[in-house]
Hints:
alpha+beta; SH3 type barrels; 2 domains; eight-stranded mixed sheet; globular; binds magnesium ion; metal ion binding (chains A, B)
Amino acid sequence: MSCFIDVLHESDFTIHNIPFAIISSSESQAPRAASAIGSYAIDLLALAQSGAFGKCSVLGNGVAARVFAEPTLNAFMALGRPAWREARAAIQAALSATGTSKLREDEELRQKVLLPLEKVKFHLPANIGDYTDFYASKEHATNVGVMFRGKENALMPNWVHLPVGYHGRASSVVVSGTSIRRPNGLTLNAETKLPEFKASRKLDYELEVAAYVGTGSKLGDSIAVGDAEEHIFGLSLMNDWSARDIQQYEYVPLGPFLGKNFGTTVSPWIVTLDALEPFRVAQPKQDPSPAAYLSAGSLDAYDVKLEVAIKPPTENTPPIVVSRSNLKYMYWSFKQMLAHHTVNGCNMRPGDLLGSGTISGPTPTSLGSLLELSKNGNEPFQLAPSVTRAFIEDGDEIVISGHCSKEVDGQRIRIGFGEARGVVVPAKSL
Amino acid sequence: MSCFIDVLHESDFTIHNIPFAIISSSESQAPRAASAIGSYAIDLLALAQSGAFGKCSVLGNGVAARVFAEPTLNAFMALGRPAWREARAAIQAALSATGTSKLREDEELRQKVLLPLEKVKFHLPANIGDYTDFYASKEHATNVGVMFRGKENALMPNWVHLPVGYHGRASSVVVSGTSIRRPNGLTLNAETKLPEFKASRKLDYELEVAAYVGTGSKLGDSIAVGDAEEHIFGLSLMNDWSARDIQQYEYVPLGPFLGKNFGTTVSPWIVTLDALEPFRVAQPKQDPSPAAYLSAGSLDAYDVKLEVAIKPPTENTPPIVVSRSNLKYMYWSFKQMLAHHTVNGCNMRPGDLLGSGTISGPTPTSLGSLLELSKNGNEPFQLAPSVTRAFIEDGDEIVISGHCSKEVDGQRIRIGFGEARGVVVPAKSL
Ligand SMILES: [Ca+2]
Ligand SMILES: [Ca+2]
Ligand SMILES: [Mg+2]
Ligand SMILES: [Mg+2]
Ligand code: NI
């Protein structure tokens, strides 16, 4: 596929990608749907109004202009995978260097549809009804377990039998670029054994990827694991900010609460499963075999290279990479998470968000949290010549990025997720 | 205050109450706001269109007709406590036996506004962005702790220092009358020590009261405990259905998930804090004193008599009362819960739901769950001459009700919450 717009080979937004987001611009401040190509956002409402989706079977007859005018992607998500597929194909056709394309031939239309990325503002891509976070990396669960319960009891017995998850807070999911205030809370004073109210001293990030539910399910029904991919709209980057000291004091017996719900950052772009298809790889071998309702093919992981970088406020450098991981390390697949989540009849709605849990790999350079990197703060590391870190300091910007790249038919293809970034601002004074 | 409509003294919906709900009717199928008086729902959209809120400072100028026409109460909630107060006062004035009342004098208007309760359909009163469940009854937390961890470790050390809570699932909160399907899931086989996939055999209810957030807060901000009541729209009954066997297998370390999220039933009516004001009583003494951000007055409990009844499918009787508890047993107040929930900057939105946790009292007849009543199934009890129960059986209907009653100036006043009811239907076959 060749594109009439020049796209750098290292761009996240090649014609093979076609991700979805919600944008606004100074010319048109109403949030609306967009895709991206190279250094441009593609205004999908303007593209729909030009008739580019007219021949689509679901999106024709004005449906595209209606759903792409919405301030969230929920209505588009609810249309189902055939609609997501034909949207991607129609956008690729409009961008193609060959064949019929009004966009390619009409200079005025191009001005309206193609907006320089640095000029658009991003909004949360969906109205997230419910956000659930899982715990699907065996390396991460083991690393954390060793620190808190010792090597013998690192993994709970249930961990290998089901994808452990918990409900998160939907209201505080924010789009990349939103600053995050350091939370205050009760933490244990190790000497007095009593709680103290203060600003968190163990503020951390968690490198995650999240799936958006596209089409939902009814209360009392389940989504079969074999059908689950049809319900998943696509994937985004996610930073599940975590205050380890608050979390540790509060989490027994009912799980994480104030240690997590002060903010969760998602990337603006959602990359569809269709775009990720060429990057499908084997998932880690599951031993013991899971229950039948969780049994799926083994090719359910995606080879997505992930990075975490920190930009300290004192250094005039680009963000400094502290970790390189990969989505393929996830022990449980998103298909399995969705099948598990609904096996009891729990209903899903378009826009629901499923976090992977922190994605750590097998090596010391692939750890997805500072908790693991600094061994719960006991081993601060060198970030720059004069900068060490154990946990996040005020003013630090955390940048998560991800991309896939692969040789296909002698040609290297690349797609990327953009970034999920956020600066930590000081706590409110007590 | 006297009402021109005859209201039975034992009615939940006296002129002292004026609760809020969302209804539809066969004549007008669009969901809209309602209140209640005696055996009638009050169509608030029709009442607003008659000009009954014309002199209100927030609800005047057509605002009442706009917010009461919405399919949820969220827009009304977002207007704030002055609007809730003037709405209640204007409705009471319209119902008054004295003074000017178009409703009282206009027979045709009464036909449009007053709809027999048995003819209206109830909908979920709010779009619930996030639902959080707490664990605020010391008796319940202790009873459960003794069963699972023994008498010495019954209460976790953090329990007396903060209102323990966890995020619940908003999508599966349903209005009273919705049937609940028995969930399937993984539970531990005690002999093999391996999980088995099957229908829950320990299906339970939890007697709870829930607060709806009225006005919200911004991410990064907190709601001070002294200001928290201004943010709470009102209270409803809630049944937090729980599958104890699924819950027990899954909940360590990240908390309840599939054991809870298959359904949560709320009553249609929300009783405002203003209506509850005469029933304010002292809350249990908090020892140790909580941190400053949780320190409030001690008159923050409400004397609300609560009942749980079970109607077995085999018996032709009214529901049989199995428990009588009271909201005043809550150790932590809703004010404290809201202050705690936001102290880290977690944002609230209108319509957010805060569950109390199971409300158990100090006696064997005031236990808020079957887990406690049957000692985790070990002591089945007699429900009717030929009926025993340890946990919920298929076809059982669980009915939660609640009311307040008190002598004020020589007159007994009573307000009630209506009911939260639900029938359990058999699990899907595996
Ligand atoms: Ca996480
Ligand atoms: Ca509960
Ligand atoms: Mg978070
Ligand atoms: Mg529940
Ligand atoms: Ni190509």
